[in-house]
Amino acid sequence: MSSTRDVPTILTSTSGKVLQEAPTGREPRYTATSQVQKRAFTLDQYTTASGAHLGPVPIGYECYGHLNEARDNAILVLHYFTGTSHAAGRYHPDDVEAGYWDALIGPGRAIDTDRFFVIGVDSLCNLNARHPLVVSLTPASLDPRTQRPYGADFPVIRITDMVRVQRELLRHLGIERLHAVVGPSMGSMQALEWAAEFPDLVPRVFGAIGGGIATEAYLIAWLRQWCAPILLDPKFKDGHYPPEDPPFDGLSAALELVTLTALSPEWAGRIFARQPADRKLPPEQKLENLFSIERALAGTARARAELTDANAFLRLAKAVQLYDLRDRVQRIRAKVLWATVASDLLILPEYSTRGVQDLRNAGVNVETVSLPTEGGHLDGLHFAGKFSDSLRGFLNS
Amino acid sequence: MSSTRDVPTILTSTSGKVLQEAPTGREPRYTATSQVQKRAFTLDQYTTASGAHLGPVPIGYECYGHLNEARDNAILVLHYFTGTSHAAGRYHPDDVEAGYWDALIGPGRAIDTDRFFVIGVDSLCNLNARHPLVVSLTPASLDPRTQRPYGADFPVIRITDMVRVQRELLRHLGIERLHAVVGPSMGSMQALEWAAEFPDLVPRVFGAIGGGIATEAYLIAWLRQWCAPILLDPKFKDGHYPPEDPPFDGLSAALELVTLTALSPEWAGRIFARQPADRKLPPEQKLENLFSIERALAGTARARAELTDANAFLRLAKAVQLYDLRDRVQRIRAKVLWATVASDLLILPEYSTRGVQDLRNAGVNVETVSLPTEGGHLDGLHFAGKFSDSLRGFLNS
After folding, report:
1. Shortest CB distance from A232 goes to which of B229, B285, B297?
2. Residue from B3, B48, B213, B225 to probe the interface with A (highest A Cβ count within 10 Å)
3. Residue B248, SS3?
């Protein structure tokens, strides 16, 4: 048993290559096979909600299924905090893991690629900034004005900015109305933001493990805790770290916190119990001697830290803190299917309960579904297939 | 409204002074008034469960009520991770806050000081090592061999060591059998450890917000997260920091994590909602601009970091990780009253459920009581009075 393997990696394959499209390119041809190609579209410029000018803005994405003649069968899939566009399929037949919602997306599945044209998009400021298949603009991208990474100069962004950039990608693909916008966790925040920002384009939203219409104070405070280890790492240097010497230890600790919060006591007890990391180094003998779960979390986090960026982490955490639709919820015309996991310790079920009530108070038609599993937040990815019947019915309604 | 005041301080008053007793001193006289005096007893030497030799070992404590002629009316009160001996009363009439379980301890209260002789004890390696009224041996104490603080040389300790040292204090006070051992959170771990270590002395255990008979893997992993900011602070220097320049930022971040985990969404939403810390510095404009809850947590944690010690923090976290009565639970003869808080996000109610089952499987008579309040772990302190009826009946049984 490899203990690091027992911590869900959530990492997607790095195999494959990115197809670059010209900004004025025609829509590429897509195959319905499970083998997926990462693509990139580049916006010449973009001004953030807070007024910062960015450009050029590459956007990474990938597609499954075919766009129909009427161009009205598209479903946009938006990812969670640590995710990428890779929602389904495999980049390479040998990839061990498929995209994060592969159980929901594919031929004959709830999001049926024989019927729908499905688009997964990297968020602006994607966390996996050092992943070879993540090409969206991040603080690790070169600033054309300086020919150095944006780094600490990358502006604060909001979920609003993520969806406005995605809107430009859809324009490029010739899509003026979606069948649905869907996503887990931060992806469901993006999905509701889509419905509020572009109400005419979004008739349906499916969100899972995603809280409500604004980030609550307790989660705001948690996001601060996630960031704290990065700020304490002396290599962080207020964000002005060189790409070759990043605040790796702080970023690893931050990723450990995220991973642990997204899992559960049931998971931890079943896999690790009270085993020491090394029987020859009992935890009771030295402060440094670890339990098995500690070593596993550290190993996974350090592997992930290789592909992620500390400045991107801080901005994504801020974007989630700033998420707030309270003044715009009345604009939503979509109907909503909202899915929760009973054992979720990150997006506590009570957030969703209050969020659903807020949506209903604003006149939004909301259906709910809850998973009784014990694995915590990540069951919204690992057991997403259990939402299939509800989601299939919802997409047909 | 002072926002730092809205984060429970959990700090006890620093007013008053410590009465030192000779190692062979006779039991001091106690008053039943609410004014409390901190006391200290010193063990000449102590060898830890892992074989480290320590000495002298001062032990801080305080008493409420009178020891009876039969010397059989004593109740030992053991504190939580960040607590001290100050369970009830006030050191000084002007103290704003009373001891943490004052609602349960006093004349006519559930732990009736007109009837019981109540003893609160600082844990060995108390976290509040820089608090003027905490005198128990900690890593900040002078090592008589070097005349410098123990610091990084302080050994790993276990909950077992805490209770063995307490046993010596009771011997000094002439107490050979207790009426009960009680405590919240880490205090309830100590209470069960007492019942397993000295079964003939402990007929009753009352534990609140305290998990089960061994720390589970998920909590082990959380304790690692608590410690991570300290290890990242460059001033930590592997524990070899000078007392005048400690890893203050790392310790503050660690204390923020503890505080947040011990509170709840309901508390956060009610007091802070989505207010910015400063209306002139909106969080959406700069990464550094904070929400109100962030500033409040930081302020409280920094105040607490002034009184606490990073090396003590790491060893207490380790002691809780190492807590494990599975091999000794059969020794327990006490009956147990086990109290939980439904909204507890630190000691999840499921830990207690499993713990109660483990105790019952070992033949222990366990009653349970649960608070339905929404304030999280700390409701086990803030609303402890709600356990009064159950506890009163239990202490009479």
Report:
1. B229
2. B225
3. helix
The HSE-up count of residue A37 (CA atoms within 13 Å, CB side) is 13
What is the DSSP annotation of B303-328? HHHTT--HHHHHHHHHHHHH-B-TTT
Number of domains in chain A: 2
The kind and range of the H/E element at B336 are strand B335-341
d(CA A31, CA A91): 12
Nearest-angstrom CA–CA distance, B34 and B216: 38
Domain boundary among B260, B289, B315: B315
**Which H or E run contains A205?**
strand A204-208
How near does any CA of chain A get to the CA of B7, in Å?
A: 12
Query: How would you classify residue B129: left for phi > 0, otherwise alpha for psi between -120 and 50, otherwise beta?
Result: alpha
Contact B215, B323 (CB under 8 A): yes
Instruction: With respect to residue B9, please indicate whether it lies within any of the assigned structural domains.
Output: no
Asked if residue B244 and residue B354 are part of one domain, the reply reads no
pLDDT tens readout for residues B181-213: 999 999 999 999 999 999 999 999 999 999 999
pLDDT of B311-354, one tens digit each? 999 999 999 999 999 999 999 999 999 999 999 999 999 999 99
pTM of the model: 0.94
User: For A309-346, what is each residue's pLDDT tens digit?
Assistant: 999 999 999 999 999 999 999 999 999 999 999 999 99
**Nearest by CB to A274, which of B214, B234, B269?**
B214
The per-residue pLDDT for range B248-287, each reduced to its tens digit, is 999 999 999 999 999 999 999 999 999 999 999 999 999 9
B164 and B82: one domain? yes
User: Is pLDDT at B18 greater than 80 in this prediction?
Assistant: no
Instruction: Give which of B302, B316, B234, B281 is closest to A247, Cα–Cα.
Output: B234
Chain B positions in Cβ-Cβ contact with residue A225 (cut-off 8 Å) = 253, 256-257, 260
Is B158 in Cβ contact with A284 (below 8 Å)? yes
Classify residue B301 as exposed, middle or buried by CB count within 10 Å of its CB (0-12, 13-18, 19+). buried
Single out the residue in B315, B335, B353 at which a domain terminates. B315
Cβ separation B221–A293 shorter than 8 A: yes
CB pair distance less than 8 Å for A225 and B256: yes
Say if B320 falls within a structural domain: no
Q: Which residue from B217, B250, B265 is facing A350, i.e. has the nearest CB?
A: B265
Q: Residues of B with CB below 8 A from A320's CB?
A: none
Has residue B86 got a pLDDT over 80?
Answer: yes
Q: Do B314 and A217 touch (CB under 8 A)?
A: no
Beta pairing class for B111-112 and B117-121: unpaired
Nearest to A265 among B49, B324, B350 (CB): B350
Work out the pLDDT band at B21, boundaries 50, 70, 90: low
Q: Do B265 and A314 touch (CB under 8 A)?
A: no
Partners of A250 on chain B (C-beta within 8 Å) are 232
Nearest-Cα distance to chain B for A272, in Å, is 6
CA distance B258 to chain A (A): 10
Considering the candidates B344, B352, B379, B382, report the single residue annotated as catalytic. Answer: B344
The pLDDT mean for chain B works out to 93
